[in-house]
Design brief:
Blueprint (H helix, E strand, L loop, with lengths): L17 H11 L12 E6 L2 E5 L4 E6 L2 E5 L7 H11 L4 E5 L5 H4 L2 H10 L6 E5 L1 H11 L1 H13 L26 E3 L2 E6 L2 E7 L8 E5 L4 E5 L19 H12 L5 E4 L5 E2 L1 H27 L4 H7 L4 H4 L11 H13 L6 H4 L4 H12 L2 H14 L2 H14 L4 H17 L3 H18 L1
Parallel strand pairs: 4-5, 5-6, 6-7, 11-12
Antiparallel strand pairs: 1-2, 2-3, 3-4, 8-9, 9-10, 10-11, 12-13
Helix pairs in contact: 6-17, 7-8, 8-11, 9-11, 13-15, 14-15, 14-16, 15-16, 16-17
Length: about 450
Amino acid sequence: MGLHPKPRDLNKVVTGDPIELSSKVIDECVATEPTNRVTNKLSELNDDIAIVESFSHMVAFRTEDGLVLFDASGKQSGVAVVDSLRKWETGRVHSLVYTHGHLDHVGGSGALIDDAELRSFAHPTVFGHENIPKRLERYQQTNGWNTIINQRQFGGISSKHGMGLTTEHASFVPKGTVWPDVVYQDEMKLTVGDLDIEFNHGKGETDDHTWAWIPNTKTLVTGDLVLWVFPNAGNPQKVQRYPLEWAKALREMMSYDAELLVPAHGLPISGSMRINRVLGDLADVLETLVADTLNLMNDGYQLNDIVHMVKVDSEMLDLPWLQPLYDEPEFVVRNIWRMYGGWWDADPATLKPSPRKHLAVELTSLAGGALQLANRARTLAEEGDLRLSCHLIEFAALADPGNKEVHGIRAEIYKLRRSQESSLMSKGIYAAAMRESQAISE
């Protein structure tokens, strides 16, 4: 599937102008420097627009009535982002707009409130789509689950039974996170000083996403609808994503003939041709994935077949704004199936399956024991068939969960598999399995 990007020195520290860098990358279709930079440093894009590059970014517009900010970054970076902002402008923050409710965008809002109180300013008014409060409520209802999957995704923590996790007292939504004061449904207009802003609702990575058009400066603020990686439309551990609706929002943005695009991750883009090149490539890939998947579904193929049949052109995946470094196409296919086809994968055996433990014990017995099966799994891994190898080692470990030798082999297999993957999501899940077995085998 072309999932291995060309080698790049992504650890190189870059402090250059983000517009100059993005123009070079788009014009040459090659990135030799990081395109997602987490520096917590501010860059001025013009006299009254700035970006603080973090995880995620804060975008700032200066007006005669105060600052309008898009996103507050996360809890861990919030204070540093506000400090950088204040080196550029010390006036009141009039409005804070959430592009969506992911915690790396809203979790740093407490730092803005603390700053307002320190300066004796009124708190900013917080704007967002009506689904943001619903998202935050869902996070509270699934506090332990969301803590587990984020630790697994970003830290390689064990996945079984919360092993190694201490979630019972942790709050997934950071303390001090500010909920929206004003919400809207489909679209909304806001004027602050001489700045006119048009909010538009668009589904993509989330169902609560806002992208904004600022006609005064012909600027698009896109949030996570532009990520400078392959679109995060398939995350295997998260709720439904919306690839076709995502593409629709991108197509609508293209109609504005924008001169500046400022995302929440990655580099700002200058010039309508560059902007529409990136937006168009993102939309093309998403639309094609949906069409190809639905065609095969309509022909009666099972999910397992479709996952292995639908491909994305490797030349597209080599583009610096489409490389599968976070999510990847195979996961998007599964999300498309879930949206249009439900949870059943069309395999009769999986409709009402036996407990996996029973299946594992039976297959292990037929293979001559758990260690025999584990050794076969290791041979397959050494031969390069990591997909089949992982099936076998899971059966072996499930059939004999206390076998240190089996878990030693399992750890080796997942260490190797992790090294072969490009996306952070795959790496995190395989690292979790590796560390789980390492803890048992030691």
